[in-house]
Amino acid sequence: MKSKQELLNENENIEIELFLQAIYMKFGYDFRNYGKAHIKRRVRHRLTVSDFNSVSELIHKLLYDHMFYQDVLQDLSITVTEMFRDPDFYLAVRKEVVALLKTYPFIKIWHAGCATGEEVYSMAILLKEEGLLKRSQIYATDFNQMALQKARNGIYPIDRIKEYTQNYQKSGGKASFSDYYSARYESVILNESLRENIVFADHNLVTDGVFGEMNMVICRNVMIYFDKELQDKVIRLFYDSLVPGGFLCLGSKESLRFASLADRFDVTTERQKIYRKKFETL
Amino acid sequence: MKYSAVVIGVSAGGMNALGKILPALPENFVLPLIIVQHVSPQSDNYMIRHFDSISKIKVKEADEKEEIIPGVAYFAPPNYHLLIEENRTFSLSTEGRVNYSRPSVDVLFESAIYAYCSGLVGIILTGANNDGSKGLKMIKDCGGLAIVQEPSSAEVSAMPEAAIKLSKVDYILKLEEIGPLLVKLSKEK
Ligand SMILES: C[S@@+](CC[C@H](N)C(=O)[O-])C[C@H]1O[C@@H](n2cnc3c(N)ncnc32)[C@H](O)[C@@H]1O
What we know:
The complex is a heterodimer of chains A (282) and B (189).
Chain A: H1 4-27, H2 36-50, H3 55-64, H4 68-76, H5 87-101, E1 107-112, H6 118-129, E2 136-142, H7 145-153, E3 155-157, H8 161-170, E4 181-184, E5 187-190, H9 192-195, E6 198-202, E7 214-219, H10 228-241, E8 242-250, E9 265-269, E10 274-277
Parallel strand pairs in A: 1-2, 1-7, 2-6, 7-8
Antiparallel strand pairs in A: 3-5, 4-5, 8-10, 9-10
Helix pairs in contact in A: 1-3
Chain B: E1 5-10, H1 14-21, E2 33-37, H2 46-54, E3 58-61, E4 72-75, E5 81-84, E6 90-93, H3 105-116, E7 120-124, H4 133-141, E8 145-149, H5 158-166, E9 171-173, H6 175-186
Parallel strand pairs in B: 1-2, 1-7, 2-4, 3-4, 7-8, 8-9
Antiparallel strand pairs in B: 5-6
Helix pairs in contact in B: 1-6, 3-4, 4-5
């Protein structure tokens, strides 16, 4: 026999499926293949914040209050990020990737799921120090408009700077981190020159298509929110977007191990999750 | 079997506390253990290798999407929340800190409840904050079993005290008593 709790949970799971279906049908955002535990946690968070008794009430609000879906989208996307997160990753890019990028006259880079932009600017600083920024075109995409707007602004709270400076130093930074921003009251604004080669754009990894001819795709801590099936689909999207020999960089706890295209990539460093699309000889 | 998994939350003093519990479990122990130990974001896996070397059961860091195997002890990776899916695989999240912690005990416990419900054993050990007490209460509400380290015997008593205050726990024990109890529970039908 199922306990009362188990029955409640079973019903709530059904309601959550309906909720995701409603978001998809009404607004086109497809969360149906996201990890269920994450979705449930975020939905329950919304129930508490907005004081709803059930997910069904949430569905009603979603359908009849045309502004509410904005809140829901924020709930379902985790935009927490930082500059030079995992400094060893940037160190590995400097050591293992930069030399190869230098052989190209022109470099195209795609940051997928760039959130509020800290990671993109970190990479721009690295490229600048390696003399590559001027010939790079960086596409920074996310499906979260609010996060993208913050990314475009490049203004961040000053209280994180100490941590970012330490990260920067550990990441192999060659200058002084303070060269890259100016402080204003409680914020810092990153130098305009870092932004010149970045295009910020709305792109949904689940429903939108390839970005062609990329030399490097960076997608860190985005696919951990997807189920295996969706991860596989998105890795195929990256594969199709990369030139032969192009690099794919994942988050430090992600891996290509379970991906059906795993054997189409060489491992540059498993520890820092940098992979390279093979030159296929058919 | 009555129980299907053990979840453990521990903070300051964990190295010593888990060093008493994990080695006490026999090689043929049948429950998975899933552990959140508060550690600094940059810590390496030294602690895990240490526990693996002194325990008879296998000890490892939980991998994203990994299937949970009975008789293995899993640790949440530093700087990520660890969640359990209802299909009994792991998910990770970079959501902000919860109770000033990432990984957070409450995040693990709450997701574990949906996967295991009354088949869950929750344990709170030494620590300096109150992470995990809400999660332990939810385990109790769901019909699971709650065990807390006896505060006076804990290196830091705040976390066990907070847990005891919030819910009617089933056992308040010294570290030496926890391993043998887990062995007994693992055999209950
Ligand atoms: C945790 S952040 C990762 C930020 C950064 N890459 C890092 O590792 O620090 C995850 C980001 O993925 C975005 N995201 C989630 N699902 C997406 C999708 N289907 N398409 C595009 N972006 C998505 C979220 O909006 C969020 O900004």
